[in-house]
Amino acid sequence: AQTVTQSQPEMSVQEAETVTLSCTYDTSESDYYLFWYKQPPSRQMILVIRQEAYKQQNATENRFSVNFQKAAKSFSLKISDSQLGDAAMYFCAYKARRGGADGLTFGKGTHLIIQP
Amino acid sequence: GAGVSQSPRYKVAKRGQDVALRCDPISGHVSLFWYQQALGQGPEFLTYFQNEAQLDKSGLPSDRFFAERPEGSVSTLKIQRTQQEDSAVYLCASSLAGTASPEAFFGQGTRLTVV
Questions:
Q1: Residue B96 — pLDDT band, cuts 50, 70, 90?
Q2: B33-49 average pLDDT score
Q3: Would residue B51 be called left, alpha or beta, if left means φ above 0 and alpha means ψ between -120 and 50 degrees?
Q4: Is the predicted pLDDT of residue B1 greater than 60, yes or no?
């Protein structure tokens, strides 16, 4: 069974600085997706960024980028120019590619605090 | 609808009471998932529907939990004889079918408190 580990329960960063959130995972599959979701106090999970395992190029979405190391099974999220609105819980998630029927496996989350 | 809608947003139930949680997915989304999120934890998979067929219910914690999606659209998660350990946020997510669109879109969840 696949597992996702987020080893940082909480991270704090100054506004406008850069922060990196860590995630490792374990799977026997070779083809899968990895995601970072943001969950503000409203509880709604919002997709931040997605990475296909077969792509070597790291995904980027504006201020958000990932460092995907497939051999090491590592998938970190870098947030540049942190903004107050980035404060939230961040969850790393895994989904096997086969058939599309699998649900997401989530880590325990990292609480990101933005210091003004 | 424009997004995934869940109701109620909050539910307080007395121990032993039955509850029903509703999920209205994005129109046209074939896949529907239910997750349970305990306080301070990540969501955990409960069950999956493709249209009206429940293809995976391996995450349901006990036979007190039952989910249905009779017409392939709205889904209901029912919990019978609620217990305190059922207190959690229940999240619903929907997605298009197939591997080309793996993103799941989530509702705001229902926070269930069993007292």
A1: confident
A2: 95
A3: left
A4: no
Identity at B45, one-letter amino acid code: F
- Torsion angle (degrees, nearest 10) of CA A64, A70, A72, A73: 70
Q: Do A42 and B43 touch (CB under 8 A)?
A: no
Residue B29: both structure tokens together: 């989304």
A101: tokens are 């029927």
Q: Which of A8, A33, A44 would you mutate first to test chain B, the one with the most B CBs within 10 A?
A: A44
Mean pLDDT of the B45-51 span: 94
Picking from A45, A98, A108, the nearest residue to B106 by CB comes out as: A45
Name the residue of chain B whose CA is nearest to A49's CA. Answer: B103
CB < 8 Å to B59, chain A: 103
Residue B87 structure tokens: 């207190």
- Say what the pLDDT of residue A10 is: 97
The length of chain B is: 115
What residues in chain A have per-residue pLDDT under 70?
99-101
